[in-house]
Amino acid sequence: MKTPFNRGSHLVKEFVATWRKKFREYVDLCLTSGFIPKSFRPLQLVGKYLARLWVYIQVGRIRIVGKENLVAPGRLIFCPNHSSMFDAPVVYSIMRRMPRYMTAQEEMRGLWGLKAIVMGAFGCFAVDRTKGKTVIEPAIKVLVGGDTLVVFPEGKISNSGTYLPFKKGSALIAIGAYERLEKKEKVGIVPIHLCFGKRDEATAGGSYGAMGFKWRGGVTITVGTPIYINDITPMTSDNVTEVVREAIVTQACATTHLPVDGK
Question: Taking the domains of the chain in order of start, what are their residue ranges?
Answer without folding.
Answer: 31-249
